[in-house]
Inverse folding.
């Protein structure tokens, strides 16, 4: 009896904790969806309603915000730009990161530890502190806005990718490499044909995180595209949504835009779900 | 013979192509604004086929736009001939701009509002021509004034009293979210506009006088700012010290305030379908204190770059765009507020946008911010000013102390004498 009660109490505790966590994580997103379905007057209603309602209290959502977001040329151009930038960043960081991680994790050379910490040190500076310096560099080299975003995002995606992949390569048994060597494979062949396929889960996980980071990045994008509005990525395009009147803040459209751009990320996560889990755990528990 | 004919024809065509002057106008990029500018350019080209007017869309945020313009100016670029500039920029940009008076602009200046011409005149040079404008207005609920048998407030004291009566009445009738008066009290440029309206309407000057004397440290100014501070938490929500235009409009348009200070844009939005205040409000000049009502002047001007390759043509284009015909078209089709006085009495304009009729009194009294006299330090002067006012609104300091200190700070910054 006593044990049973304890069990039930434990379950109740667990589930109420889960509910709290789910609300904590999902409420902002729910509120964005809710707001995106309201027109301006519904947004201003007090007290705020949990679903879009008209003045008589009837449920009346509007899809106008989605329509105007999806017909906004700046928004669509933003999606294209973000796709270009985020995919390039992901690809470049994975390629460079995998090479670096292989040598750092599996090869022996002097200054390995120093290199690792140097890479880590790159992530120590907050974005704002390097921003003005980067801007000066970009104008000095006369880089286009898209290129400068790609290069500057790699400042924070590359160290991360390198570190996670290094841990992963380290965890792979040396025997695999040795047997490959016995069979006459060069280090590059070992890397390319044996180790890389084994690291697929880690590549997917880090790649996805790099993608999300560069997809959502705002500060660098805002700064670098200030002179070239055509290169604006999606977070900037959403923030700079303009309404019919110059002073009007199109809150509903902003929310609709925000909801729309989370969809690609959600889809990507769903596709790679299984790999992510194995990627996250693989570094921890050696098989 | 035939060959010669073709050759001369080709030459003729290419010559006429070369003869065509291209004038580039850098202007607003937001939907309708861009469309109407393009339409106006087309109107000009129909009359002047030898000139091609192109419209360059620029970033829609004012600060971004200024940054872009400065790049062009620093490089002495001839890429853009006509610039659309904010009402607070003429002083800062004057050195790069053409004096319209050199191109016979004195023939037309009298048709514009004098305060705008004054704002755009730097050292006796007219560096920009007013294109469309903006000024602070008092929005009031006609239904509530009727209900409580009140008239439109003419003074701040009346506003305070009426707001209190309506607020108390509406709250006891059940709307606990109701407030008397909402305005822009956040620490930003908008507060400079609101505060300069209070001060100038109380005979307290405009921070720095047009002849370069710092006048802000005076009893009238302190009195009215202290009064505004007393509104916070009484007739205005305590959160008003964090409100910008859109936050105050949100309270107003939900039907939760009796009065609002805002720009003309809130008019058509307040009358949109589903608005809680649709058809229940009107606009009037802001109330006055000891003097005449004030209204902070906003809006955009057209200026011609000194680095243009075709200055006379560019001036002509700018004057055409800011002329009667184009402004009328923009007023009717886009509700852009004209800068030409007569347009507020033009029957076609009044017919299309009825509330423009009541705006004339506002624009004739509009108060420019001291941007021209304090150039190129206006942004800093304004920041010092709104921070000082904000410190009074939050109750951290008393107005006389804050203004005394402010006058000295501005003197340090600009070198102007304090009076």
């Amino acid at each position: 009896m006593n044990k049973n009660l304890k069990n039930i109490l434990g379950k109740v505790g667990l589930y109420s904790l889960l509910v709290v966590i789910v609300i904590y994580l999902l409420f902002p997103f729910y509120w964005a969806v809710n707001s995106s379905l309201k027109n301006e007057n519904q947004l201003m209603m007090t007290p705020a309603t949990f679903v879009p309602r008209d003045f008589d209290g009837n449920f009346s959502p509007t899809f106008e915000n989605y329509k105007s977001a999806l017909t906004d040329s700046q928004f669509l151009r933003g999606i294209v730009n973000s796709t270009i930038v985020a995919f390039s960043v992901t690809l470049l960081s994975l390629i460079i990161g995998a090479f670096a991680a292989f040598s750092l994790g599996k090869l022996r050379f002097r200054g390995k530890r120093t290199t690792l910490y140097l890479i880590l040190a790159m992530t120590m500076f907050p974005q704002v502190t390097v921003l003005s310096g980067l801007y000066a560099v970009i104008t000095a080299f006369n880089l286009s806005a898209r290129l400068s975003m790609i290069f500057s995002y790699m400042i924070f995606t590359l160290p991360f990718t390198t570190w996670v992949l290094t841990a992963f390569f380290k965890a792979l048994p040396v025997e695999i490499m040795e047997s490959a060597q016995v069979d006459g494979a060069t280090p590059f062949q070992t890397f390319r044909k044996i180790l890389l396929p084994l690291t697929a889960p880690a590549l997917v996980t880090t790649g996805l995180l790099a993608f999300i980071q560069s997809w959502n990045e705002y500060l660098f994008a805002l700064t670098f595209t200030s002179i070239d509005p055509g290169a604006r990525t999606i977070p900037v395009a959403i923030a700079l949504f303009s309404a019919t009147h110059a002073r009007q803040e199109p809150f509903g459209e902003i929310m609709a835009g925000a909801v729309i751009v989370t969809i690609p990320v959600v889809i990507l996560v769903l596709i790679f779900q299984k790999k992510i889990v194995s990627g996250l755990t693989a570094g921890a528990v050696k098989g | 013979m035939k060959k010669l004919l073709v050759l001369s024809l080709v030459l003729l065509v290419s010559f006429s192509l070369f003869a065509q002057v291209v004038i580039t106008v850098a202007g607003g990029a937001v939907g309708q604004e861009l469309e109407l500018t393009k339409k106006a350019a087309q109107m000009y080209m129909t009359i002047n086929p030898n000139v091609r007017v192109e419209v360059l869309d620029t970033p829609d945020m004012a600060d971004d736009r200024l940054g872009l313009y400065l790049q062009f100016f620093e490089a002495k670029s001839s890429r853009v001939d006509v610039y659309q500039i904010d009402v607070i920029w003429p002083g800062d940009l004057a050195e790069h701009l053409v004096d319209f008076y050199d191109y016979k602009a004195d023939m037309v200046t009298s048709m514009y509002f004098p305060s705008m011409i004054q704002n755009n005149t730097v050292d006796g040079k007219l560096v920009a021509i007013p294109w469309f404008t903006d000024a602070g207005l008092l929005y009031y609920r006609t239904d509530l004034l009727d209900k409580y048998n009140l008239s439109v407030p003419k003074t701040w004291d009346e506003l305070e009293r009426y707001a209190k009566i309506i607020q108390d009445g509406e709250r006891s009738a059940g709307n606990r979210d109701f407030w008397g008066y909402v305005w822009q009290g956040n620490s930003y440029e908008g507060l400079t506009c609101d505060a300069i309206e209070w001060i100038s309407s109380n005979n307290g000057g405009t921070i720095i006088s047009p002849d370069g004397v710092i006048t802000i440290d005076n009893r009238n100014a302190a009195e009215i700012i202290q009064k505004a501070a007393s509104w916070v938490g009484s007739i205005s929500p305590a959160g008003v010290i964090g409100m910008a235009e859109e936050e105050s409009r949100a309270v107003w348009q939900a039907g939760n305030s009796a009065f609002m200070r805002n720009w003309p844009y809130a008019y058509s939005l307040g009358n949109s379908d589903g608005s809680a205040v649709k058809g229940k409000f009107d606009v009037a000049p802001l109330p006055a204190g000891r003097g005449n009502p004030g209204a902070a002047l906003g809006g955009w001007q057209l200026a011609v770059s000194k680095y243009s390759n075709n200055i006379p043509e560019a001036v002509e284009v700018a004057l055409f765009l800011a002329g009667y015909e184009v402004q009328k078209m923009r007023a009717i089709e886009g509700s852009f507020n004209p800068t030409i006085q007569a347009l507020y009495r033009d029957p076609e304009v009044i017919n299309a946008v009825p509330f423009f009729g009541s705006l004339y009194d506002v624009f004739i009294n509009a108060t420019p911010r001291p941007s021209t006299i304090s150039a190129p330090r206006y942004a800093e002067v304004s920041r010092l000013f709104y921070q000082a006012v904000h410190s009074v609104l939050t109750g951290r300091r008393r107005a006389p102390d804050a203004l005394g200190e402010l006058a000295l700070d501005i003197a340090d910054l600009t070198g102007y004498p304090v009076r």
Observations:
- Chain B has two domains: 2-127+298-364, 137-294+371-414.
- DSSP finds 18 helices and twelve strands in chain B.
- Chain B touches chain A at residues 28-33, 57, 59-61, 64, 67-68, 71, 177, 245-246, 250-251, 253-254, 256, 263, 265, 268-269, 272, 274-276 (CB under 8 Å).
